[in-house]
Design goal:
The chain is an alpha/beta fold. It folds into four domains: 50 residues; 72 residues, no CATH class; 175 residues, Type I PLP-dependent aspartate aminotransferase-like (Major domain) (Aspartate Aminotransferase, domain 2); 108 residues, Aspartate Aminotransferase, domain 1, CATH 3.90.1150. The chain contains 20 helices and 15 strands. The strands form four sheets. Strands 1-9-8-7-6-2-3 form a seven-stranded mixed sheet, sandwiched between helices. Strand 4 and strand 5 form a beta hairpin. It is globular and about 65 Å long. It binds pyridoxal-5'-phosphate (PLP). The site of pyridoxal-5'-phosphate (PLP) has 14 residues, from helix 9.
Length: 534
């Protein structure tokens, strides 16, 4: 979401804020407070008997309130649509005759001018992980050209791509101390790797433990894709809290939540939001004790941790050396510096991985079998991932990882000198998350955004993070970042009532909207607008 979209989203949420006070306003408007009080009294009574329906949810079903809310949501969504259309004339039908190559190229450049952030100058958190090495870019472009139309769905036609995929999996499994039984596949990204792992545990537990109501126990710090997996695959995701200020999943709570329906537990190495590594060793013991799976999400840390471990800069345990670890997701399209659309899912053995597969033997198009979600895939992703791994080698990735860790350590020390800020947990690799009990951290985030930084805004608790990449290393961002952060904190301290802007304002507002289903509906409108024109 960029600033303009953010502004609009914010206005929308403001107008939809359905907290108690607004309800009273709404009610005054309809001059009907007695009806509402009556409803409330009646609902409170009913609530004793129907304890899974909140008072608010019940009130929302009153027809005129329902209509009012829907009207506001619809108009908000319309506004979002309008905003997206405003300054661009979309092409909505195929041109009768194709454009010339030069025309297409110039149109591409014209579209690119719409970008507000120049990610290459180090102001964007995460997003693009690679520090513009022309040598590697040329290699990638040449590889794209060479494998442009290849499709690994047909290994008979593209045996070359099959070899590359095998080699990618082998190299990565070696990094994670896999043995001859360890196996895996390339997927389109961290989310697909995680979806695959969750489906695998669901089906493994169904066939081997007769579990028909599968549950996965995760710390609240796990990536959102586990929640998505629960939704897609009908798995109950049981969330346990993180321990105090360490940001690590509470192992005791995790142990308490494991029951006869638990198919696996999950640890992050490190977590997306706070960059903290869970106690994977203790999770491994738990998994062994209960004969359940343990997935380690190394999507973010996968191309940093193994390298710094070898240099002694990291003493965490996170890989197949721990006997309870049964799968690991590793994103090559993050610190592996490959193109987007590339991740590896590894399993302890083939006996487990087979539950990832989809196989239908009756289809009239033949036996339909795919290892992951995709059918046809681009061989370009396989080939560029393979090229990137070979290009960097152990020494290349180690050097990049050490530089990122050094920058992280430098920033952590500098942030610690700002007394109003608190770093969440112990940032393990590249993510530093900060919150505050003294200043409004979203106001600090707003000021950082006004200074041109594109940071990740977090909630529960309110915080933001910067995810450091080679781009930040290359741009030597440390001094400027700390200078701007100090300014932003001072500003927030001296102007506590100042308005927040951009994404910070949105999160500030969503935290006050009592009814999250409204936030969900407007977010749905936002997603619609991503591809809406005419
Ligand atoms: C820890 C972690 N897991 C999973 C993912 C999902 O990765 P992707 O965006 O490639 O689907 C991310 C993304 O940032 C992540 O940080």
């Amino acid at each position: 979401m960029d600033r303009e979209q953010g502004k609009l989203f914010l206005e929308t949420l403001k107008s939809l804020n359905m907290e108690k006070t607004n309800f009273l306003n709404l009610n005054t408007r309809f001059n009907n407070i007695f009806v509402l009080l009556g409803c409330y009294y009646f609902t409170k009574k009913t609530y004793k008997y129907v304890n899974n329906i909140s008072v608010y949810n019940w009130i929302k079903t009153i027809p005129w309130i329902k209509r009012y809310i829907q009207k506001r949501v619809d108009s908000a969504i319309k506004d979002i649509d309008k905003e997206f259309k405003s300054d661009h004339t979309f092409i909505n039908t195929l041109p009768q005759n194709g454009y010339g190559v030069n025309d297409i190229k110039s149109l591409q450049l014209q579209y690119k001018t719409k970008r507000t952030y120049n990610y290459d100058n180090g102001v964007v958190s995460g997003t693009v992980y690679y520090g513009s090495n022309p040598d590697l870019t040329n290699l990638m472009c040449d590889t794209v050209r060479e494998f442009i139309y290849s499709n690994p769905l047909h290994p008979d036609v593209f045996p070359d791509v099959k070899i590359m995929e095998t080699e990618v999996v082998n190299m990565v499994k070696h990094l994670f101390n896999g043995n001859k039984d360890t196996c895996g596949n390339l997927t389109s990204g961290g989310t697909e790797s995680i979806l695959m792992a969750c489906k695998t545990y669901r089906d493994w537990a169904r066939d081997n433990k007769n579990i028909t109501k599968p549950e996965i126990v995760v710390g609240e710090s796990v990536h959102g894709s586990f929640l998505k997996a629960g939704d897609y695959f009908n798995i109950k995701i049981v969330t346990v809290p993180v321990e105090g200020s360490s940001g690590k999943t509470c192992i005791k709570s995790m142990a308490n939540k494991i029951n006869k329906n638990t198919v696996c537990i999950v640890g992050s190495a490190p977590s997306f939001a706070h960059g903290v590594i869970d106690n994977i060793k203790e999770m491994s013991d738990l998994a062994l004790k209960h004969n359940i799976g343990l997935h380690v999400d190394c999507c973010l840390g996968g191309f940093i941790l193994p390298f710094i471990k070898q240099t002694g800069l990291c003493d965490h345990e996170f890989d197949f050396q721990l006997p309870g670890v049964t799968s690991i997701s590793v994103d090559s399209h993050k610190y592996g510096n490959s193109m987007k659309g590339s991740s590896i899912i590894l399993y302890k053995n083939k006996k487990l991985r087979k539950y990832q597969y989809f196989i239908n033997t009756e289809w009239n198009g033949g036996i339909y079998a795919t290892p992951t979600i995709a059918g046809s895939r681009s061989g370009v992703i396989v080939a560029t991932t393979w090229a990137s791994l070979l290009y960097h080698g152990m020494s290349g990735y180690t050097e990049l990882a050490i530089r990122i860790i050094k920058l992280k350590n430098h920033l952590v020390q500098a942030i610690k000198t700002i007394p109003e800020l608190r770093i969440i947990g112990n940032p393990a690799t590249s993510v530093i998350a900060v919150d505050s009990e003294i200043v409004d951290i979203y106001l600090v985030g707003s000021k950082m955004s006004e200074k041109g930084w594109n940071l990740n805004i977090l909630q529960n608790p309110k915080a933001f993070h910067i995810c450091l990449t080679s781009v930040h290393v290359k741009n030597k961002i440390a001094e400027k970042f700390i200078e701007d952060l100090s300014y932003a904190v001072t500003y927030a301290k001296t102007h506590p009532d100042n308005k927040k802007s951009g994404t910070c304002a949105i999160y500030g507002m969503t935290s006050t909207v009592g009814d999250k289903s409204i936030v969900k509906e407007v977010t749905c409108g936002f997603l619609d607008s991503l591809t809406y024109s005419s």
